[in-house]
Amino acid sequence: MRKIGIDQLSEGMIVDDPVSDFHGTVLMQKGTAITPNGIKILKTWGVLEVSIDDASAKEHSISREPQIDPRFMQEAKNEVQILFQHANQNNLFAKELMRLATIRIAEARSERR
Amino acid sequence: MFSSPRELLDGTEKLSSVSVVHERLNEAIFSQRTTVGQITSIIMQDAGLTARLLRIVNSAYFGFPRKIDTISRAVMVVGTQQLHDLTIATSIVKLFQRIPERFVSMGSFWKHSVACGLAARVIAGLNRESNVERFFVGGILHDVGRLIMYDKIPEMMDEAFSHVMNHPAPMFIAEQEIIGFDHAAVGAALIEAWHLPGSLEEIVRYHHTPQSANRYQREASVVHIADVIAHAMQCGSSGELNVPPFDEDAWTLLGINPGSLPQIVDLVDRQLEGVLKMFHSNES
């Protein structure tokens, strides 16, 4: 089983752990196959990650997040820590905003060099 | 020493023609008997405003399929209330052109303001709020108090800046400690002096503390979140270096889930340059 970001899901992957929304309502049972419509539903309910079984994850080679040099990612992570130093980081909004900010900064850096 | 935000204004409220245009339009909009023709003629008395509004309603920002070539058509398509709020937005740009660039570049300040306005408009749209332009204007105005503070009390602002360098804290907290009140209070006093709607006053006053808003908590929460997003995207700055502390209850109140953040950021990214240009070619 591995956790996969919502943007990396592809059709036919098999859900390995029930998926719930923000309030705990189950949206997909274990064993469900991912469909385009399923992805739309997950996005609508704000799901960020889904557990997928290993075999189907390998079969559908995961299209990784845009390939960014790990060095830039690490620099960006450090910068984002400073950027969010006054914010309460221990919630889903902060985590998602920090993830987006990290990718944004890392991409800007790799384009610059 | 200034004892209240109001004292700081001292003539600044006359900086812009916001209140004059606003008052005439407002009277017309709230009077039951006003016709589209009358509103059209108020706007058309100001040639600059006419040109700006036509440019805006014809821009990608609205994305109307057909060209809108008269103000009366714009009034009918966009609606009087929204056109009124856009009138405020176009008048505000002038304020930003007058302040010396000692603390932050005005381009950066304006970019942060517009990014916040756009994020607020996107969030309001997702939440199906009525009159999304009110949120856009609220976002553009949220830090307007800082313009006045840079202008009137530059030494104290210097002190606030060195304070946050030595004791890491958000800038608005440093303002409260050193000056006794922050840019949110100054901005709100300015909005009051301009006789702009109460919702805008609360948006500006409570954009760091939406829980304290009285009548317009939803509005204040939208702009609070939009400000956080604009900071996280690093779209310009009004002097605050980091993402300000944010209130999780604001997100809950609006029912926004974290999964919609990429979409909000993407929409702001796609509109930002266009809107900056739309306001920039403005001096005509």
Describe the 3D structure.
- The complex is a heterodimer of chains A (113) and B (284).
- Helices cover 44% and strands 12% of the residues of chain A.
- Chain A is α+β, with helices and mostly antiparallel strands.
- Chain A folds into 2 domains: 2-59, Molybdopterin biosynthesis moea protein, domain 2, CATH 3.90.105; 70-112.
- Chain A has a two-stranded antiparallel ribbon with strand order 1-4.
- In chain A, helix 3 crosses helix 4 (92-112).
- The termini of chain A are far apart.
- With 284 residues, chain B is an all-alpha fold.
- Chain B has helices at 5-9, 18-30, 36-44, 47-57, 71-78, 80-98, 106-126, 132-141, 144-152, 154-166, 171-179, 183-193, 198-205, 217-232, 248-254, 261-280.
- Chain A binds chain B through residues 6-7, 21-22, 42-48, 82-88, 91-98, 100-101, 104-105, and chain B through 168-170, 228-229, 231-234, 242-246, 248, 251, 257-262, 265.
